[in-house]
Amino acid sequence: MKDIRFNISLYVLIPVIFAGIAILSIIVTYNTTTFYLSKSMDPQWPVFGWGVLLIAFTLICGLLIVKFMIDPVKRFVIRTKDLGVVKNVHTTARIASADDDMGRFAMVFDQVTELLGKVEARQLFPDIVGQSKVMRGVFNQIVKVAPRESTVLLTGETGTGKELIARSIHQHSKRQDHPFIAINCAAIPEGLLESELFGHEKGAFTGANTRKPGKLELADGGTLFLDEIGDMPLETQAKVLRAIEENTIERVGAIKPITVDVRFIAATNRNLEKMAENGLFRQDLFYRLNVFSILLPPLRHRREDIPLLAEKFLNQRKKDLSISSEALQLLMTNDWPGNVRELKNALESAAVLADDKILPVHLPFSLKRNGAISGTTINTNETLSDAAGEKVDLDRRIKDYERRMIADALRQSGGVQVKAAALLGIKERSLWHRIKKHQIDIADFKT
Ligand SMILES: Nc1ncnc2c1ncn2[C@@H]1O[C@H](COP(=O)(O)OP(=O)(O)OP(=O)(O)O)[C@@H](O)[C@H]1O
Questions:
Q1: What ipTM goes with this model?
Q2: Is the pTM above the cut of 0.80?
Q3: If phi over 0 gives left and psi between -120 and 50 gives alpha, with beta otherwise, what is residue 40?
Q4: Which residue segments constitute the domains of the chain, with CATH numbers given?
């Protein structure tokens, strides 16, 4: 059916509404008067005199409303046209819906709100780059959850900024003046994790020569960030659950529990729900952690953030370093399995090689290869089949990428793990665990 639209100016519409109300009151008055007359009673007032007065009064009210309320809004909308930051409503595709005053106002307000959202995010989170819609959603979630005391679960692939977000939640919480302590559960050997978390008494085990406070005690009053919680042994999970629920911990080798006041933020790049279903993660702990969860999107799902991230990382290295459009195109088309961390490392190594401009030749070998393979076209819908057209398992693909990145870093560092870890932006222990996981033979890379 054809959509018929009439465009009436607000200057006409509002007074007419008021006049309509006045006419309605006249009808009511008239009916009341005729009722009195039919009962041979005197009407109380001259109907038409009052009616005319009422119409005039409502018309004036309507005009005053237009003058004092609509005029400033209209002036604001007209001024936004000159500012350039708000798209001219007359040139947008949504013109059909913006022919009337209200449509135009709504469009300008939408755009202004969007802009304010970006400005606010930049002010509130100066360390976190992200203007994409998904990242603005993440900022909103941080703002909501930070002042609360609830436990937060951050999920997302490696290098998506989980630790950065955890710090930001802490900085925007009431605990900001207290410590933020982070512990990577995957980087600490199983036998040592409990004593790292809960501390130990002198003589609790061989080598425990002094009493040592654990991360939970150190985080007292503040926030404890449990990174890669999916790698925590089940036994330790039970103790962490108790610490979350009862605010008490026991140092290894201690007899008495101690009370701590800690807010927990956990992070993982694994599917904890699935792990819990398969008995690889405690269900009760999963539910306790999953009170408020934030999903950090992979970089390939927010490619519009790449130029901003590149600018930030290059400025951190050398202030006057620029990037060629070809190199930027390569950055935009790469899949970034290592996400922001990988982008940061790629730019850092390019900054070392480049003089004043980053060219494709300065970007890491693996990146150039990926760009060439993907045909350097931006594909926001992930490729879900491989070259042979077969479905590719996401976990397997991530694992392959991780393995390739580690191998590349080891190759570049001549098999020196400290250097390779620095290139990948991870701790040496974390690299060691990953090398073990992928069964990589370091000897193959020694030069
Ligand atoms: N949105 C962002 N803006 C600026 N820097 C970012 C952003 N996201 C990540 N980074 C940077 O990327 C690097 C990796 O981030 P981070 O350690 O927080 O990731 P992660 O998800 O915790 O990784 P992992 O799962 O491997 O521990 C850090 O140097 C961080 O500062």
A1: 0.98
A2: no
A3: left
A4: 10-116 (no CATH), 133-297 (3.40.50.300), 300-445 (1.10.8.60)
